[in-house]
Design a protein that fits this description.
Layout (H helix, E strand, L loop, with lengths): L3 E7 L14 H11 L4 E10 L7 E5 L2 E9 H20 L10 H18 L8 E5 L6 H7 L5 E5 L7 H4 L5 H8 L4 E4 L2 H15 L2 E2 L4 E4 L2 E7 L6 H9 L1 H14 L3 E6 L8 H14 L7 E6 L8 H21 L7 E4 L5 H9 L3 E4 L8 H8 L8 E5 L12 E3 L4 H13 L2 H17 L2 H13 L1
Parallel strand pairs: 1-2, 1-5, 2-4, 5-6, 6-7, 7-10, 11-12, 11-14, 12-13, 14-15, 15-16
Antiparallel strand pairs: 3-4, 8-9, 9-10
Helix pairs in contact: 2-3, 3-4, 8-12, 9-12, 10-11, 10-14, 13-15
Bound molecules: GDP-alpha-D-glucose (GDG).
């Protein structure tokens, strides 16, 4: 087996595992993928340095070698806070109203990708497979090719690929996509994002696609396929059996008394649709006053990207909205929303999912969404809860037995809550079983193996 070199914006050093805090889906998935491999994980340390020198910090933990570099302030501002999080993230989540097209962001993005390519290129040996991740690093493969790296290089996009009509609002969109033609393999979460990408290749670049999924544009060819990501099922199931999970389960059950808990767990991000979810829940409370005190909503939302203005705004809006709903409906002994603005250890999350009768996973747009899969994995097989899932999450294509909703419609969300509360046990079990089989079988290892085999082959 060839050595794997994983390259992503942030590198999560294994010793930090298990610590409380928001560990994004990408980190969770990649650590699992690297644990068995003798490979290297390269990326930005997350730290700022006065002046960039390309100094490598090499660490070995638990069979994983991590190599990181620090970046200087201007690089972080333009590449990470700027182009990645204020241009590409909103645009790729269909929010062109939030996308900022600053010239300095684009040039900073290219400059930092060049620096990272320069730093990682000497670590790559002839037989290595190189696997580049996500929207921070789209042009990195091309920059490695410019440095003479002839290895097989793959790219996986964790977030959606937007429809062509939105994507062309990005200045220099063609320049960005042409860099992707230097990869051997491009992976998307779902067929839907893959279709948007191939549509762009055909309509904007005059490319062709064959039945094997090979795209050709001029003299370049690249294979593109869907590889839906899964959770680390074994690790998560084990976490769910531990004492921390049991304690979290018991605490939530006893504090909820006999009420049914609806749970939401999301990094604080506008793409996750938490405001719309609160509005759907409010609609339910208004529409079914007799059922109000049967339920409570626990929303866990660890802050993310606090340095980006839009994220501070959403935090404020959610505080206001939850305050408004609680103020309007609370009784002396009942508060409709418990809004918790911090992260929990993964094992505690497993216990909280299991104690919740309903999960509300209602992103407005999401590449996959691993919370939906974690909720399914954590359920009691005899008495599973109901997953209410946005049809705009990549996960909806695999978890068809969830109650699928349009997250923009407060009425649909409200009605799904009512339906979930009334769902007979047999129906809950039947729906859960098919979803569980999918989450178990198409886990992170399945995802990694499919991608790596396709890349190697
Ligand atoms: C991107 C794409 C795609 C959340 N709160 C806590 C916590 N989390 C963990 C969850 C889950 C992960 O974070 C979130 O993963 P998602 O998939 O839901 O979302 P993104 O972070 O936006 O991830 C997404 C993913 O990449 C993988 O490809 O699915 O579509 O946007 O694992 O459990 N973890 C801990 N404490 C928390 O409070 N420990």
């Amino acid at each position: 087996m060839s050595r794997l070199i994983v390259i992503s914006n942030r590198v999560s050093v294994p010793k930090a595992q298990g610590a409380a805090g928001a560990q994004g889906g990408l980190a969770v998935a990649l650590l699992a993928a690297l644990r068995e491999s003798r490979g290297i994980w390269f990326g930005w340390s997350g730290e700022e340095v006065e002046q960039y020198e390309g100094k490598l910090d090499i660490q070995r933990h638990d069979g994983v070698t991590t190599v990181t570099v620090d970046l200087e302030r201007q690089d972080i501002e333009e590449y990470y806070n700027g182009y990645a999080n204020r241009t590409l993230w909103p645009l790729f989540h269909y929010r062109i109203d939030l996308a900022e097209y600053e010239r300095t962001f684009g040039s900073g993005y290219e400059r930092v990708n060049e620096k990272l390519a320069e730093a990682v290129a000497p670590l790559i040996e002839p037989d290595d497979l190189v696997w580049v991740h996500d929207y921070h690093m789209i042009p990195l493969g091309k920059m490695l090719r410019d440095r003479g790296i002839a290895n097989r290089i793959g790219f996986f996009l964790h977030i959606p690929w937007p429809p062509t009509r939105l994507f062309v609002s990005l200045p220099f969109h063609e320049r960005l996509v042409r860099t992707m033609l230097e990869y051997d393999l491009i992976g998307f979460q779902t067929e839907e994002w893959l279709e948007s990408f191939t549509h762009y290749i055909e309509k904007e670049l005059g490319g062709a696609i064959d039945e094997e999924g090979c795209l050709s544009v001029d003299d370049k060819t690249v294979r593109a396929r869907a590889f839906p990501i899964g959770i680390d099922f074994a690790e998560f199931t084990e976490a769910g059996c531990g004492s921390e999970a049991k304690a979290a389960y018991a605490q939530l059950k006893s504090s909820a008394q006999e009420k049914k808990v609806l749970i939401g767990v999301d990094r604080l991000d506008y793409s996750k649709g938490v405001e719309e979810r609160f509005e759907g829940y409010e609609r339910f409370l208004e529409g079914y006053p007799e059922r109000r005190e049967d339920v409570l909503l626990l929303q866990i939302a660890p802050p993310s990207r606090g340095e980006v203005h839009t994220y501070r705004e959403i935090r404020e809006r959610l505080e206001t909205l939850s305050g408004h709903i609680n103020g309007g409906f609370a009784e002396v002994d009942w508060v409709p929303i418990r809004y918790v603005n911090r992260g929990y250890p993964r094992s505690a999350l497993a216990g909280l999912y299991r104690a919740s009768a309903i999960a509300l996973v209602t992103p407005l747009r999401d590449g996959m969404n691993l919370v939906a899969k974690e909720y399914v994995a954590a359920q009691d097989p005899e008495d599973p809860g109901v997953l209410i899932l946005s049809r705009f999450a990549g996960a909806a294509l695999q978890l068809e037995d969830a109650l699928l909703v349009n997250p923009h419609s407060a009425d649909e969300v409200s009605e799904a809550i009512r339906q979930a509360l009334d769902m007979p046990r047999e129906e809950r079990v039947r729906r859960w079983k098919t979803m569980y089989a999918n989450v178990r079988d198409e886990d992170v290892e399945w995802w990694r193996n499919r991608f790596v085999e396709a890349l190697a082959g």
